[in-house]
Amino acid sequence: MPEASTAVFEKDNFNAENYVKNLVQDCVGGPELQQTKQKIQALSETVSSTLKKHVYENYMQFIETAKEISHLESEMYQLSHILIEQRNLLTTLRDESMLDDQKNIIEEQSLDPNVNEEQQNRKAIQLIKDSLIGYKGNLDDKVFIHEGGLIELDSNDYRPICRIHLFLFNEVLVLAKVRNEKKLEFQTEYETKKIAVINIKDLDGVNKNAINVITSDGARMFQCINSAAKQEWIDKFEHAIKFHQLKKPKKAPAPQPPTSLKLETSQKMSTDNELLTLSPTASEMGRVIVENLPPEWLVTAPEEIQAEIAQRHFEDCLALLQKCEEHLAKDSTFHGAAEIGEKIKTLKSSLASVLMHELSNSQSRSLQAALRSSRRPLKLLVEMEKSREACGILLRVCTSAIRTSQRQARRNNLAVSELFFCDVALVASEFLRAFSAKASCTSALIVWCNMELQYFASQLIKHYLTKDTQLEMVAKVVEGVREPCLKLREIGLDLSYHMEGLLRSTLGQLLDEARYRLVDSIGRTEDPWQPYNLQTKTGLRTLLKEFDVLGIDFRAYVTGDTWINLTQATVNFCRHLLQTTESCAYLAKYDSLQRDAEILIRELFLSQHSIKPPNSLNADMTFVAKNKTYMAEVLLPIAMNRFERIAGKKPDLLLELHTQLRTVPPKPKPRSVYQTDVL
């Protein structure tokens, strides 16, 4: 009798199936086998008890470790707080030292105060052109206003990016990057009439003394050395933005209406009387001047719009912009209408850039959170006729969120297919809601769905439909894809045909590999061609219940207490064929795979049906014929019905096979009169 010890089970090459086979061969009789079973059971209980003991010990150690971690966490929090304070202090010192070292170009050169302002401007421009490396623009007709060194910050985490030197003119803003040798390398330039400046609220230790410059390339954040420098830059930017509205290059006060016309509402009657006493020509000119003045709210609207953008009151900002545009559309004959219109246009472009930046910032969140946070900027961008740009940004954000969730689902072994198509349905619903009035954007959604479907199919093939994947697993994966994909039809989106096309080649190869593998496994076990003995009544009942679930009733073939009048190979093949048929039926729901699936079932069936006993066995040919008849007359029709019920299609190849087997029944070999059937 073989010894049962834990050492046997702890070996790396231990195989339970081989161990049981050897055990059955080595044990003599049932009692000895029962004793071995009891020993194995005792070992199992001992191992279970030891495992519980170890689990308890690990649990107690875990509790102790958790307490230590709790204390350590408190200490780490205090240490983190100290480090943050130190970092803020060092950052402030570094920024101040960097900006102190970066002196202005004009201040380093002594300008002669005796010359006039125009000559000083020309000399300043020449000094700037000489100090800039790689600048090829024209500054000769510009008016120099201000310069200084700043630090550009990342708009997401306020992290310093690089040192920047700004040169502000009446028409352009020139940006130069400061190199290690304190040389200035030209970076880019912007028109002052197309930029807006926003004062950013200071946050302790994060972005003190920062301003946000809205340009045609988006928002750029800069940090000044102190609050005084910050306020000076804001004033100079406002001066430069207004400068191009004047006809003369030199800064001069805007023309004011005659003092006789600046009267309060209570003096309107006396003003009219005075105008009537004037000459007809003077009276007419006075009325023209009064009528050509813009409303006071329109004059102050640009400043209010900038304040609304800075405070993130985007709805109020857009409403004021639209009000200004409506007024300018009705009346654009007043004095300064062109300048105010240009301001409104620039501010509208700035608002659109801020909203698009707001929409892009949601890409690091989950899909649901990203869609919720995108509703506000989406609605405003659609109202501003920026639907094309907005839908492109939204779909890029959704792509990032979906692919992130797919990676997490694969790591956690979750249902990736259902998650993917639910996310696609969520994106499509939100997209159609946001752009319901913009039919031209629907094409972008269709293109996006196709691209995401291609990426999803490639990941599905890479991770779940690899070579040597079991047919049952392949069918499970495909069915998990097909059902949620069909549900997209409820929202008017049908991706089933495209999905089938993307998987067709891979699934066809997997079916071919499964066919070769399954057919090759037939006949490897030697069949004694004897009735199947289940040994016990319990074993027989268990087998009958198992096949009842599969749709096969063996009760008519039961003889005695434990016998089935079919070979064990035939009984096992019945189970194998029905399971394979079920997997193939799920794959055959795709029309392009139906023929391949039926070929697999047919060849598998014929491989088993064509097996003959060896001549040396001297088997009962009537019993052999009985097994083959059962397979052709009972098993094959059950398999065909199962296939049709799952796939929803008739298996034409299997029907043809069934017809052929019925028309050509097998002829049994004549047997000796001394032989009898085994009952």
UniProtKB/TrEMBL annotation:
> Where does the Exocyst component Exo84 C-terminal domain start and stop, copy by copy?
296-495
Claim: Transport is one of the keywords in the record: yes
Sequence segments annotated as region (Disordered): 248-267
Q: Gene3D superfamilies annotated for this entry?
A: Exo84p, C-terminal helical domain, Exo84p, N-terminal helical domain, Pleckstrin-homology domain (PH domain)/Phosphotyrosine-binding domain (PTB)
- Cited Pfam families: Exo84_C, VPS51_Exo84_N
The signal peptide stretch is none
Q: Which GO terms describe its biological process?
A: exocytosis; Golgi to plasma membrane transport; protein transport
UniProtKB keywords: Exocytosis, Protein transport, Transport
Annotated GO CC locations: exocyst
Question: Do the record's keywords include Protein transport?
Answer: yes
Belongs to which family?
Answer: Belongs to the EXO84 family.
Q: What is this protein called?
A: Exocyst component Exo84 C-terminal domain-containing protein
Species whose genome carries this gene: Anopheles epiroticus
Taxonomic placement: Eukaryota, Metazoa, Ecdysozoa, Arthropoda, Hexapoda
